[in-house]
Write a structure and sequence with these properties.
It contains five helices and three strands; from the N terminus they run βααββααα. The chain is an alpha+beta fold and about 80 residues long.
Length: about 80
């Protein structure tokens, strides 16, 4: 379960919240009112998700472009089947 904390409460004791995230590996959502504003995650999780240069996050539009470009024509498909 995700834990949420109000921004006002976070400002009162940021060190405690950061310790919870770092040492207890909690993911904490920061809210202002009822609106989710940000998320705090352990540094290890952040590095796995965002630091790896080999991983690129693509938009749905870009994924559709890849699928369109990757389609094999019927002629090429027939040639491949003959080779296999």
């Amino acid at each position: 379960m995700q834990q949420s904390i109000n921004m006002l409460d976070f400002r009162k004791s940021p060190g405690e919240v950061i310790n919870e995230v770092f040492y207890n590996k909690k993911k904490i959502i920061l809210e202002r009112g009822k609106k989710k504003m940000a998320v705090m995650v352990p540094i290890g999780l952040y590095e796995k998700l965002f630091i790896d240069d080999d991983i690129e996050i693509y938009s749905k539009t870009r994924i559709k472009e890849f699928k369109k470009e990757d389609k094999i024509t019927k002629n090429l498909s027939a040639k491949i089947k003959k080779l296999l």
